[in-house]
Design brief:
The protein has 459 residues and is mainly beta. Among the domains are: 130 residues, Copper amine oxidase-like, N-terminal domain (Copper Amine Oxidase, Chain A, domain 1, 2-Layer Sandwich); 104 residues, no CATH class; 67 residues, Thrombin, subunit H. Helices cover 4% and strands 53% of the residues. The chain has a five-stranded antiparallel sheet with strand order 1-4-5-12-11. A hairpin with a 2-residue loop joins strand 22 and strand 23. The longest helix has 7 residues. The radius of gyration is 23 Å and the shape is globular. It holds the Pfam family Cu_amine_oxidN1. Keywords: Signal. It comes from Cohnella lupini. This is WG repeat protein.
């Protein structure tokens, strides 16, 4: 782990974000099954959908098969003679029968959590069970009434090219790109011949590879660069905003960070300066707040530009899970780390030599060269013997022992032995693990599922 703040601008070739609903909408509105509701929010890879209806039967959420399949990068075929529907993604297929809990996954019979429902010419399927069959994650948040769907694709390498696999290691998009990057909000940045564009979850080119640099979609637009000029495009590649500043950054919370000379501010989607250029340093909005530097100190502003947490800290980092990591001033210039809440209160005292943002309800901290993890009350939830450890993702955190890396769970149990020279944190079910010059994708059991391209190391 490092305390060096990542670049303000989200790195080039990190996964793109865009409106996957554009593709899904082509299936049209489906009729509802019993107990259907239209007031739930459906989010696909972080993008809220419109025109969807869900159904709940005996506590199981069902969705119309066509738009659901499209959302996870799968296709649907109806066999009129057999009255069966087959959902296919890469080499995986599930054959579904009408009004039945029995399905066939890659030739093997499986039992679904709920029977499919045929109503008004539409087949409704248990979303979580069908999603799991393809490695997708489907989760219901009762508090926000949101159904979240994540396809969980990952770049892999084969014969010098890159494509995408699911969490089982099945190829879902063939390896035909010079560079492939993580999916986010339905699209991914891919590179060919030194230029970059965007593809969807079926591998369809949505925006051609014409840019010298490409960045994440956010708030429906993406920052790109072509012929030395930076500007914002929509999900069809149309230029929507070309503001004139020395440096442009991604949108977050409805605002984009911009820089002119040595000052930072924020513009809205019309290009108007919503928050004037006045900060010595500034960062993205997260949880409705952004860290900024005023007179050499860091604090936080809200989306109106109002300073809501005074600039009194040596450093301040993004708000995550309701807490902002801050570094208090120290007599030796090496201040201690603690956590402020949205009210500006130092909820967890600044008494740690190292501190990192909250992830999955825990924050990694270190004193005397040994890592432990705090819960949201500031209590030590887990103590380790390790001098290097990472954040928790997918229930696992990496650790280093005797120069090798492995993973522990939230009880401190070693789940994946330390056998790798380096690793990256788990994300969407898989993690990158490197030994020598070989890079692999491993699952949460430590099983290698695919080859991967080793990340470039800066000289």
């Amino acid at each position: 782990m490092s305390h060096i703040r990542p670049s303000i601008r989200k790195g080039i070739l990190i996964a793109a974000a865009a409106l996957v609903a554009v593709q899904i909408a082509s299936f049209g509105h489906a009729s509802s099954a019993s107990a259907a509701t239209s007031n739930a929010v459906i989010s696909v890879d972080g993008v809220v959908q419109s025109g969807w209806t869900i159904s709940t039967i005996a506590g199981v959420t069902l969705l119309p098969v066509k738009p659901f399949a499209a959302s996870i990068g799968a296709s649907v075929k109806w066999d009129q003679a057999k009255k069966t529907t087959t959902v296919t993604q890469g080499s995986r297929s599930v054959q579904l029968n009408i009004n039945s809990k029995t399905a066939v996954l890659n030739g093997q019979s499986i039992t679904l959590s709920s029977a499919t429902v045929w109503k008004d010419g539409v087949l409704w399927v248990p979303a979580k069970a069908i999603g799991a069959a393809f490695g997708a994650q489907v989760a219901w948040n009762a508090a926000s009434k949101t159904l979240s769907i994540s396809p969980r694709f990952h770049p892999f390498a084969s014969n010098g090219k890159q494509g995408y696999v699911n969490v089982f290691g099945d190829t879902v998009i063939a390896a035909k790109y010079d560079e492939a990057n993580e999916f986010s909000n339905g699209l991914a940045i891919v590179g060919k011949g030194g230029k970059y564009g965007y593809i969807d979850a079926k591998g369809k080119s949505i925006i051609g590879a014409v840019y010298s640099q490409a960045y994440d979609f956010s708030d429906g637009v993406a920052l790109v660069e072509q012929d030395g000029t930076s500007y914002y495009v929509d999900a069809q590649g149309k230029t929507v905003l070309s503001p004139e500043y020395d440096e442009l950054f991604d949108f977050s919370g409805g605002l984009a960070l911009v820089r002119k000379d040595d000052l930072f501010g924020y513009i809205d989607h019309t290009g108007k300066e919503a928050i004037p250029l006045q900060f010595e340093d500034a960062f993205y909005f997260s949880g409705g707040l952004a860290a900024v530097q005023i007179d050499g100190k860091y604090g936080y502003i809200d989306v109106t530009g109002k300073v809501v947490i005074p600039a009194i800290y040596q450093h301040a980092f993004d708000f995550k899970e309701g807490f902002g990591l801050v570094q208090a001033e120290g007599a030796d210039g090496e201040g201690s780390f603690g956590y402020v809440n949205a009210k500006g209160q130092l909820a967890i005292a600044a008494e740690y030599a190292q501190g990192f943002s909250f992830s999955e309800g825990l924050a990694a901290v270190s004193n005397d060269g040994v890592f432990s993890y705090l819960n949201r009350k500031g209590e030590v939830a887990l103590t380790t013997e390790f001098a290097d450890a990472g954040d928790f993702h997918d229930g696992l955190a990496y650790f280093e022992k005797d120069g090798k890396y492995g993973f522990i769970d939230k009880k401190g149990k070693i789940v994946i032995e330390p056998v790798y020279d380096s690793v990256e944190s788990f994300d969407k079910g898989l993690a990158l693990a490197i030994t020598g010059t070989e890079a692999k994708l491993i699952d949460t059991n430590g099983t290698v599922v695919a080859e991967a391209a080793a990340p470039e190391v800066d000289d």
